């Protein structure tokens, strides 16, 4: 099996970002551009530089309270998300809590025909299975592209996340665990139906993350 990858890119310079995206897409099916690592004023320039590649990009602008780097106001962040949506990327990663709290913003994104990857992370633990299933059910209301990622402290935590793939009728689920105990789920998720696994260019940006080279040696 050839493992499909999405390389998380955390570059803070627009020209370097563009160069890296183009080079990485020669080796990986997709890239995730972490726009929260850029200064807000540099994001429009960056979008212009990578616009031809965005058809294979997951675009993310993660706020600090969701594990990201963006520290501006929520209104500023949503304005930037709307700008990114105009470029029609492959997927637009937007947090479940963001969509849940702002119906006007959700309507804008749906009206713009943006392909939303609704995401939810728990950086401390893995909830019990009823809670995870309830979360999945609620996330389905916003998109059929869903990402659920939790921290695994035991192998049982990790296998619990994998059980979500039993409820994937009509949705495209990306679910796996962070941490060393959950590292195997980053490979197993591909066998369970995930369309790709997130990897780094070398230094992991999340606990337990494989590098692109490591995955390529496995597949």
Textual characterization of the structure:
- By secondary structure, the protein is an alpha/beta fold.
- The protein has one domain (5-218): TIM Barrel (Alpha-Beta Barrel).
- An 8-stranded parallel β-sheet has the order 7-6-5-4-3-2-1-8.
- The protein contains 9 helices and 8 strands.
- Helix 1 (14-24) packs parallel to helix 2 and helix 7 packs parallel to helix 8.
Summarize the structure.
With 219 residues, the protein is of the alpha/beta class. 37% of the residues lie in helices and 20% in strands.
Provide keyphrases for this structure.
TIM Barrel; 219 residues; alpha/beta
DSSP helix fraction: 25-40%
N-to-C span: 6 Å
Structural class label: alpha/beta
Measured by DSSP, the beta-strand proportion falls in 15-25%
Low-confidence stretches: none
Domain unit count: 1
SSE ordering:
EHEHEHEHHEHEHEHEH
Q: Which fold name fills CATH's third level, the topology? A: TIM Barrel
What is the overall shape? globular
* CATH-defined architecture: Alpha-Beta Barrel
- Average pLDDT metric: 96
Q: What is the CATH class name? A: Alpha Beta
Outline the fold blueprint.
Elements: E1 5-9, H1 14-24, E2 30-34, H2 43-50, E3 57-60, H3 74-85, E4 91-95, H4 96-101, H5 103-111, E5 116-122, H6 129-139, E6 145-151, H7 155-162, E7 172-178, H8 185-192, E8 197-199, H9 212-218
Parallel strand pairs: 1-2, 1-8, 2-3, 3-4, 4-5, 5-6, 6-7
């Amino acid at each position: 099996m050839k493992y499909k990858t999405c390389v998380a890119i955390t570059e803070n310079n627009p020209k370097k970002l563009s160069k890296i995206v183009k080079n990485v897409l020669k080796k990986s099916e997709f890239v995730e551009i972490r726009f929260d690592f850029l200064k807000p004023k540099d994001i429009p320039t960056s979008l212009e530089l990578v616009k031809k590649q965005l058809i294979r990009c997951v675009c993310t602008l993660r706020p600090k309270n969701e594990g990201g780097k963006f520290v501006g106001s929520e209104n500023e962040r949503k304005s930037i998300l709307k700008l990114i949506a105009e470029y029609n990327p492959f997927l637009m990663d937007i947090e479940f809590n963001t969509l849940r709290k702002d119906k006007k913003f959700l309507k804008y994104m749906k009206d713009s025909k943006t392909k939303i990857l609704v995401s939810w992370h728990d950086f401390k633990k893995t909830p019990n299975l009823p809670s995870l299933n309830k979360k999945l059910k609620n996330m389905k209301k916003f998109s059929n592209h869903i990402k659920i990622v939790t921290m695994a402290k035991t192998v049982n935590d990790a296998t619990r996340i994998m059980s979500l793939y039993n409820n994937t009728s009509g949705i495209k689920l990306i679910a796996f665990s962070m941490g060393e105990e959950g590292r195997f789920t980053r490979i197993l998720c591909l066998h369970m139906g995930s369309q790709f696994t997130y990897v780094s260019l070398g230094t992991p940006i999340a606990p337990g993350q494989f590098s692109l080279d490591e995955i390529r040696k496995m597949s």
